[in-house]
Amino acid sequence: MGEEFVYLDNAATTWPKPEQVYQAVDKTMRESCANPGRSSHQMSLKAERIVEEARQAVAQFFNAPSHKNVVFTLNCTDALNIILKGLIKPGDRVITGPYEHNSVMRPLRTLQRSGTSVAIAPGTSDFSIDLDRFRNLCKEGVDYAVVSHVSNVTGCIAPVREIADIVHEKGGILILDAAQSAGIIDIDMQLLGVDVIAAPGHKGLMGPMGVGILVLGDNLPVQPFREGGTGNKSQEDSQPKELPWLLEAGTANLPGIAGLLAGIRYIQSIGVNTIAEHEKELARRLVDGLKKLDGIRFYCDPGEPQTGVISFTLDFMDVSLTGTMLDQAFNIGVRTGLHCAPAAHKTIGTFPAGTVRVSFGYYNRSDHVDRLICSLYALAR
Known about the structure:
By secondary structure, this protein is α/β, with parallel strands linked by helices. It has helices at 19-31, 42-62, 76-87, 102-113, 131-139, 160-169, 189-192, 254-270, 272-290, 319-330, 342-348, 366-380; strands at residues 6-7, 70-73, 93-96, 117-120, 144-148, 173-177, 196-200, 212-216, 296-298, 309-314, 332-333, 335-337, 355-359. The longest helix has 21 residues, at 42-62.
């Protein structure tokens, strides 16, 4: 336990953050933490410049139609709730994937109880979406499709371009849950054909907790469920109709937005592909090192992991006990259980116990992988 703590839970939130993120949050708190867009004094104007600079950066990062189509939210869950409950109506038909997080499934189930039709495409043996079944479901009608770009359980990447083509052919709108892909995979919403992106600031984008983003295509009839002060059209007692103010009510998380901006700039300085390759290389090292461990079962592509997320179970030890032993005996932090995605575990056959999930970040090193491998072999003895 004298060794450094090895953090392998980056799919939940990345840690540590780049030094620039810490500095941006601290500097904003100390020097410019007035209410952005509300007052005309210099400190408020400085705060508003931070927000607008971040909005521009996010728009460029995802190739959004306009920076005004970027809405800052509390987190990815908040972004998904805003778009799902602001767009989908009783009588609409929604199609979703087999590996969705509760941030998608719970709002959809609530909408379903109010008269929305929800259909779930099945998965395949290689942890992908069954595109043939997805296509057949769309032939029966689709108003909206909601799909996770990368599963937070298997780490597998959905074929977004193909899904977009199927959905758009039938006149539907594609909403992408980018909780596990933003900052890890290049996402060009124009090239991918994505109509809406929801993403957290605190995961692959390396920002602090408490800030998320919603990036909208043009001409989407979203209705706000949160209304209030915006600093825009204050003489009116109804919510402004223009983006981003339509969906941004109340004081923004300025330090969080400043940290998110610093995180995006850091990622751009390194390159998304460089980060992705580093995390995949660590995942490959882990899988290769554990292949000879008796009783291990992987829930990803063991030949070529697609991301830095690896899920497994051990025949000789319960997943919760495995996580506890790694933490308390070996000073290694992983995540165990259902990962807030019971639908995914039902699809891959690990419900209700779940899996042990290892998720690498840019700051993890090969010796972190080796410590985990040695620790798991020690548990097997």
